[in-house]
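Researcher: Structure prediction, please.
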Amino acid sequence: MIITIELIKELFRGFTVHRWNDKIRPVDLIEIDKHAHKMFIAYCLGKFEEDNGRTIDWNIIIKNGIFELLRRIVLSDIKSPIYYLIKQENKRIFNKLNQWVFEQLAEKINDSQLQKDFYNYLFEKTKIDKLSQKILDAAHKYSSYWEFLIIKNANPFSYQIIEIERSLLNDLNNYLDLVGMRELITRQKISDFVDLFGQLRFQTRWSQIPRVPKTSVLGHSMLVATLSYFFSIENKACSKRIYNNFFGGLFHDLTEAVTRDIISPVKESSKEFNKLIFEIGNELAEKEIFPLVQSHWVDELKYFMIYEFKNKVNEKHNSKKLTTSLINKFYNEDKFSAYDGALVKAADQLAAFLEAWYSTHFGIKSDELFSAINQISSNYSKLELGELNLSEIFSGFLEGQK
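Model: Predicted structure follows.
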């Protein structure tokens, strides 16, 4: 498999990396949460640029967004101001840092092309599409500023606060040629959409069950999106399919911003209740989510969010018989706009498995957690989704627990 147990463990460490940890924080600010918000903002910025007639290389945005998350996880002990100072003032040391990052991660990426792409991302910036990188950088800065506004009033006696705000605002000014950034800075309705998604970082998953580390709906969404990306690569998915699967994974829990998190055992307690929750979520999305975006974006968002775990193509071939293997064989071209709901669900279930497994690994004994581990691993250990077989992943984690 392209994605290894070691790489999954590295990704999950994103839930343990705290941001702004030298400041008073009203809530925990976690690295993987920030990158989820960043990729959501990148989606909005990219859509505005497409509306403005520009061509966006979404594959680069997705892949490099994941690469940057991995780099930040490895460099978790370096504060952002120090990181940027090294990057700007001492290229030799910055390249040494990147070499160390590459050495830590290269063997955990079980694909020579992805290894090469990761190396190029770290060392060959001139080869990266400039517009794609600008969108990612702008999204990174805006998501940092969004976090800063959370801690600003909690640190009234920090002399650094004024300087941090000035620096962030100066950085944002560098991206005002992007239509979406102007919309965000002037607080147009898209900023409410970005705020709504950001609030998912305050919603704790499995909130009734003690767990370590705690995970938010926002961070979970980034993990699902990232796993969906690797599962798509495993199936040699075309560019549009990768785009759909990644953003489908990122947006799959967006309705929880208006319904709150409802754990699967409750939703699945009866078909009638599950249907009711589905209908309520869709109704609230129509009233509170879709009016916040450009009207011509709504169909795509619905494609991601409604029946998010169902395989789809843009032709009327969306029956239960539309398997991953059939998509691989007949619909793996951009023109079909295939969406692998089954892969996204597998990513969602693996993410839930990891959330439960890590808690028991750290010593929390809970019937609910053990039940989730056993049920998910039983359902997915022998399930093949096209070229994807997760048996090695699940057995590796379960063996490590014994």
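Model: The chain is about 65% helix and 0% strand.
Researcher: Thanks, that helps.
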